[in-house]
Recover the amino acids of this structure.
DNA sequence: TAAACACATGAACAATTATTCATATGAAGG
DNA sequence: CCTTCATATGAATAATTGTTCATGTGTTTA
């Protein structure tokens, strides 16, 4: 079997060379695609989706989020950190409490687009 | 400590009751949010993102995808199955080969939206 | 119909990740 | 200051998931 980067590939009878090389030239670089996947990964968890859905309506302190989602405070805090690192949310402190809210309307738009897509099957 | 569904929650001094109940009433049902997360999860893997990126340009047989992405055929097939179950791609058989392509332009749009978002930091 | 080929798939394994538990930080009030 | 409360975080655990390996299915061709 022919190999490529140590990985077995099919006989190149199967490889449509012109298409393959054309696509290879136009591929975005690996880093961009990796970032893209990492970005989506943040949305790919129902706890985080639920948090974002709540924040779509109101800014919210950690404790209230925990109450609404019936989860313990620690779990919420961990997920908030991930959302914040991804710049999807921001926070402001008010005394002992920290209020979280959506970073911008882009996030709303991204959620809406997906909801539409699902609605259309 | 007060409890709710067996999970510890903060004293309700902290819970802003009117906001909490208002948000609770307007939450989409759990199933919808779960589906939404599952949907994003499909995009949240760089192999699948790379496959989709390739299919954005050309329909492609499994073997060529494996060649382009320098991965073995089995790994590609597994990921194609996930993409197909999520209705992001479709396939047609031509003799021994199976050609995969994007299910619709919605997928392109979803990818583009995220790329834009990342570009804006 | 037997062999070769492209692809699919189940099981095992490896890696990633969400949640919990215990504890730390940081602000407010006594 | 010392305590209390809201939140953050490190480590351990449990669950999920991507890749590999071996093999199965379906199609063409000799």
């Amino acid at each position: 079997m022919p190999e490529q980067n140590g990985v077995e590939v099919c006989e190149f009878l199967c490889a449509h060379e012109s298409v393959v090389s054309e696509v290879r030239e136009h591929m975005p670089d690996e880093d961009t695609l990796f970032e893209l996947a990492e970005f989506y990964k943040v949305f790919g968890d129902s706890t985080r989706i639920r948090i974002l859905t709540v924040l779509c309506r109101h800014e919210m302190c950690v404790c209230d989020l925990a109450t609404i989602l019936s989860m313990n405070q620690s779990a919420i805090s961990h997920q908030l950190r991930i959302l914040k690192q991804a710049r999807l949310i921001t926070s402001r402190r008010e005394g002992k409490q920290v209020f979280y809210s959506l970073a911008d309307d882009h996030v709303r738009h991204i959620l809406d687009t997906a909801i539409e897509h699902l609605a259309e099957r």
Q: What stands out?
A: The radius of gyration of chain B is 21 Å. Chain B is about 60% helix and 15% strand. Chain B touches chain A through 63 residues (CB under 8 Å). Residues 61-63, 73-74, 76-78, 80-81, 93, 95-98 of chain B lie near DNA strand C (CB under 10 Å from a C1').
